Amino acid sequence: MTKINDRKTEIITVAAKLFKEKGYSAVTMRDIAQAMDIKAASLYNHIKSKQEILVLIIVEIAEEFTQTMDEVVHSEESTIKKIEKIIQLHIDITLRDANALACLNNDWMHLSDTELAYFIKMREEYEENFRTIIKKGIADNEIKNLNLEVIIFSILSTLRTLYLWYGKKKSPDSKTLTSNMIQVLLNGIVIH
Amino acid sequence: MTKINDRKTEIITVAAKLFKEKGYSAVTMRDIAQAMDIKAASLYNHIKSKQEILVLIIVEIAEEFTQTMDEVVHSEESTIKKIEKIIQLHIDITLRDANALACLNNDWMHLSDTELAYFIKMREEYEENFRTIIKKGIADNEIKNLNLEVIIFSILSTLRTLYLWYGKKKSPDSKTLTSNMIQVLLNGIVIH
DNA sequence: AAATAAAACTAACAGTTGTTAGTTTGCTAT
DNA sequence: ATAGCAAACTAACAACTGTTAGTTTTATTT
Predict the structure, then answer these.
(1) What sections of the protein cross the membrane (chains A, B) (predicted)?
(2) For residue A167, what pLDDT band results from cuts at 50, 70 and 90?
(3) What are the pLDDT digits (tens) for B131-140?
(4) What's B151's domain CATH number?
(5) Does the model's pTM come out above 0.85?
(6) What whole-number distance in Å separates Cα of residue A108 and Cα of residue A24?
(7) Do A188 and B186 touch (CB under 8 A)?
(8) How many angstroms separate the CA atoms of B125 and B133, rounded?
């Protein structure tokens, strides 16, 4: 029972790493197998298809984002505190599972029918919740009355591509990252 | 002469659009041909290989970024003015050629040997130049003394993924985009 | 009208793809 | 020891890949 899961998990981990490097379509089942020192056919003792691997990588993380965002939206904190929690959410998941996050960002379009629709729904829900938070912040005079979409995508695009930066030589440690990120995204970089 | 170029340009444009949607590896020569209402073999009257298409899409734009960044670095303006020019550069290219930009961002790793090395060199040069600008800004007391890498990747990741947002229903017009983007990235979103 | 060249076509290739069927290996519990 | 079973293997498939060769169509120039 645990053995099956262990091996399956291993496939998913290895696949996620390869998908990050070359993208879903460029990675073959033989690539994944070779990285595990087995033959491609052996993978099918553990997984149903290449598609299933992608689904398992993406959906779990997407659900985690969706759920935490839902909790944040319905909490009774200040807008700034909410945004800080969202920043923290992205940093946490990036540090824990950068490869899966890369897949979610780059390979979601290779999900098929049902899962694709599910993913898109979650992503739209996530963005809409973010929009709600910022709108309330503007109404409450916590956030500057700038173009809503520009605010949303400035923050989200940075958070979503964190996986690209983390792990590089020059990337800061977790604590420095969090506090500096909050500073930069909320208060800007210019001295007045 | 112009006719050859026209058809070749058309291939590159169509390919860039498809590459943006599904990624380089998932797009076949038959896909590109079908989108142009011809057969795959006919493409080879105009281009040498699938690889060449990718190179033509990516390298030209990468060189434009590199060159303009070089001009900005060596100019005698304030740091803030320099950053504003870089923001403008990204917005301009995004509005002009979002598809090619998507390729550059997602498919650069499928370039082969020579071009891959060339691309990576340009990208590192670009980031290093950006680093130089921010460092000087901090030294001159124009920019807050926050973690250099966090500043760099907050701004760059937003600018680099602009292509994902532009064209959507809710995305603002060009002027609103530029001014709001400068506001958000430089001054932040919080009211103090 | 004939000649030339560009750009489309058909047919096919050799290699790669995800996946299946059937078989062998190696560990675990009786 | 042996039965049972998870997990590896080999061999093969049909479909698809980028690309080439050779041919026909289309458009332009003489």
Answers:
(1) 146-166
(2) confident
(3) 999 999 999 9
(4) 1.10.357.10
(5) yes
(6) 9
(7) yes
(8) 12
